[in-house]
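One-letter codes give the sequence; the integers encode the fold. A sample entry reads:
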Amino acid sequence: MTTTGWGRVEQAVSLAVAGLATGSMPFPVERDAVRDTALRKLAAVAGQRGWSVQVLRDVAGPEADLLFPGGPVEMVEAWSDLCDREMVVAMQETAEPRLSQRVRQALLLRLPVDQAMRAGARSGFATLATPCARGALRRSLMRTVNAIWQAAQDESSGMTYVTKRLTLGAVYGTTLLYWLARGQDEAALAAFIDRRLAGVLRLGQLRARLSGRKAPVHPAPV
């Protein structure tokens, strides 16, 4: 990806994160096993060959394009949803009692140290950063943030539900960009996530002091 292309992705992700505050939860992506299989085959080579109808046909069959009438944008959006679902499944057996650590686990599962996945994601986000994507990036980020909370087994509702998702949206946006650029080192990625979560914790404590409320002894960082 060129410097100009990377700058466009960074700007698009930042704008999409800012847009989480005003957007409603998007409709679910169409899901079925045949589409999922085609997406996995495409994602395995997308880092080198890109997200295109021709590549999809090459790896998943001559009629695979019929599965995604919306073209490359629909493919990338559906792949993001597939990654969300796989993260939720992987988190089902977690025994971690602390919500903040469950969020941390979910983030690391959603953004694994896998070269092929990172390369495919870089190419995919470049596709979603184009004007013709029409909000697909914001929709994908919103679904992912919601899936992380689902994976973390958060049961908040009302304004707390909204506030937590907006806060996590900012954390996920910065972590996503770090992962895309330098996510080959799992320990460094985990340390980056820890710093982001610690920053949210400090902000929550400051808000509590300014409002005159006593901060909880073990507040959830997001």
Notes: The domain at 3-210 is CATH 1.10.357.10 (Tetracycline Repressor; domain 2).
